[in-house]
From TrEMBL:
Residues 67-122 form the Translation elongation factor P/YeiP central domain. The keyword Protein biosynthesis applies. Pathway: Protein biosynthesis; polypeptide chain elongation. Keywords: Cytoplasm, Elongation factor, Protein biosynthesis. Pfam families: EFP, EFP_N, Elong-fact-P_C. This is Elongation factor P. Involved in peptide bond synthesis. Stimulates efficient translation and peptide-bond synthesis on native or reconstituted 70S ribosomes in vitro. Probably functions indirectly by altering the affinity of the ribosome for aminoacyl-tRNA, thus increasing their reactivity as acceptors for peptidyl transferase. Transmembrane segments: none annotated. GO terms for molecular function: translation elongation factor activity. Residues 130-185 form the Elongation factor P C-terminal domain. The keyword Cytoplasm applies. It comes from Aquimarina algicola. One of its GO terms (biological process) is peptide biosynthetic process. GO terms for cellular component: cytosol.
Length: 188
């Protein structure tokens, strides 16, 4: 058993007869009343995100997990195929267990969290950022530069990202996977 002081991003817990992964948390100590922890929990079975508040010192049941590095191979409909980089065993995961399937490029190494009790994959942690090539976007018009103006761009995986006006087709850009947002243009 763990307590609210053990809460951290990525921790898997049993809550309401399901397994949830903590994706966001905030310890709050109001001036009046007891402290509490405000959390965002993502169900590893359904992908649904819920908000929950735990009072300070509340006992939570954590789930023992192992992490393994897997390389993304290919997608087949809503099924994604991965290969363990240590023993070369392959697993298939449903699209719902992935946080950002639109940013997965073949060959990317991800961390798969596996339940130690029954060896079932719980979730996939993407690298913090990925570098992808822009395949389609409208050309930027010179002089049309209001502060922080953006336009939609399609990257090589098919995902659509909002990018600054100076990005053109063929540019490689770094994308933050957690939010799916543009970070910077990569010069080669």
């Amino acid at each position: 058993m763990a307590t609210t002081s053990d809460i951290r991003n990525g921790l898997c817990i049993k809550y309401n007869h399901d397994i949830y992964k903590i994706i966001e948390f905030l310890h709050v100590k109001p001036g009046k009343g007891p402290a509490f922890v405000r959390t965002k929990l993502k169900s590893v079975t359904t992908g649904k995100v819920i908000d929950n508040t735990f009072s300070a010192g509340h006992k939570i049941e954590d789930v023992r997990v192992e992490t393994h590095k897997f390389q993304y191979l290919y997608a087949e409909g809503d099924t994604y195929h991965f290969m363990n980089t240590e023993d070369y065993n392959q697993i298939t995961l449903e699209k719902s267990t992935l946080d950002a399937p639109g940013l997965l490029k073949e060959g990317v190494v991800v961390t798969v969290i596996i339940n130690s009790e029954d060896q079932m994959p719980l979730s996939v942690e993407m690298p913090t950022s990925v570098i992808l090539e822009v395949t389609a976007t409208e050309p930027g018009v010179k002089g049309n530069t209001a502060t922080n103006a953006t336009k939609p761009a399609t990257v090589e995986t098919g995902a659509e990202i909002m990018v600054p006006l100076f990005i053109n087709e063929g540019d490689k850009i770094k994308i933050e996977t957690e939010k799916g947002t543009y970070k910077e243009r990569i010069k080669e």
